[in-house]
Amino acid sequence: THFPFFLFLGYPSPREGIFSQELDAWIIALIVITSIVGVFILCLIVLRCFEHRKKTNVSAAR
Question: CB–CB of 10/18 below 8 Å?
Answer without folding.
Answer: no
